[in-house]
Amino acid sequence: MRFTFQATQDGVLLKTLLKQQGISKKLLAKIKFDGGQLLVNGIKENAIFKLAKNDQVVVDIPSEHATPTLVQQAMPLTIVYEDDHLLVIDKPAGIASVTGQNYPDKTMSNFVAGYLKAQGYDNQKVHVVTRLDKDTSGLMLFAKHGYAHSRMDKLLQQKGLTKRYYALVHTSTQLLASGEIKVPIGRKDGSIIERAVVNQQHPTAKYAHTSYQTVASHAQFTLVDIQLHTGRTHQIRVHFAYLGAPLLGDDLYGGYRDQISRQALHCHTLSFCHPFSGEIINLEASLPKDMTRLL
Fold it and tell me: How many CB atoms lie within 10 A of CB 60?
């Protein structure tokens, strides 16, 4: 894959310009040793070449092979957005995002790997940018090459990506028309899975910030529109349980499963500035049938 840049001043090292463009040392090594190249005004140069103002820099990044240990599996995907750099899928509930000890295959990573193979793309490696819990549905973002992955990771660190969720929670007197939840989250004592609201002195405490707006309220449950400002494990589930409003179906944090068989959580919006085109991307995914039925 080819990218083009222009030097804006004299005397800057080529590797400095590339670093400013988000090309890491690891990626630079890949370019050097795995078949890529660096061109300045059409001439092959090394990373310590000194640039002159207005020099044209071309970077050829080598293709990425499929990960041998990641099984490529087929499943129809609901693709919400795709270009040469990014792929956004509307993930169904009940499918894990990535492989692990409990999910060796049949995860979204496996199915995206299968899709990349079926399409015959040059880059076959799967890059997961945003994950969702197994029982959470909605928008999941993948990068289609390592450079796009690093650019999106940087965007995440700079809080340049907005994620919004719909959740059906048990109705609680602590829920407001809109609110901010700013309480730290850490591991629940005695558990390796559960998280809990903890005090700031707890050894695993991490700052967590969730915003929400009440969309509709019924006697038994309330629909809330949620924005995450931090990305802690189980953040939405823990924060709403803290308000006495656990998610429907989320029995790990006090929700009941009599109306829905999974945590009623759906990532409905992703918004970001595209790292290569500069275009503002706003993506949406409709509520799935199990949540719509309850409403």
Answer: 14
d(CA 206, CA 183): 9
Residue 192 confidence (pLDDT): 87
Pure H helices in the chain: 14-20, 25-33, 108-119, 146-157, 235-242, 289-294
Structural tokens at position 89: 């899928």
Residues taking part in catalysis: 133
Q: State the average pLDDT over residues 83-105.
A: 96
Using DSSP, state whether 31 is helix, strand or coil. helix
What mean pLDDT comes out for the span 214-227? Answer: 95
Give CA 27 to chain center in angstroms.
21
Tell me what the pLDDT averaged over the chain comes to: 95
From CA 115, how far away is CA 121, in angstroms rounded? 9
Q: How far apart are CA 83 and CA 114, in angstroms?
A: 17
Q: Are 160 and 119 in contact (CB under 8 A)?
A: no
Three-state SS string across 57-123, please?
A: EEEECCCCCCCCCCCCCCCCCCEEEECCCEEEEEECCCCCCCCCCCCCCCCHHHHHHHHHHHHCCCC
pTM over 0.90: yes
Phi, psi of 17 (to 5 degrees): -60, -45
pLDDT at 83 over 90: yes
Backbone angles phi, psi at 228, to 5 degrees: -90, 130
Judge whether residue 114 has pLDDT over 90: yes
How open is the CA angle 203-209-212, to the nearest 5 degrees? 145
Provide mean pLDDT across the span 257-270.
Answer: 96
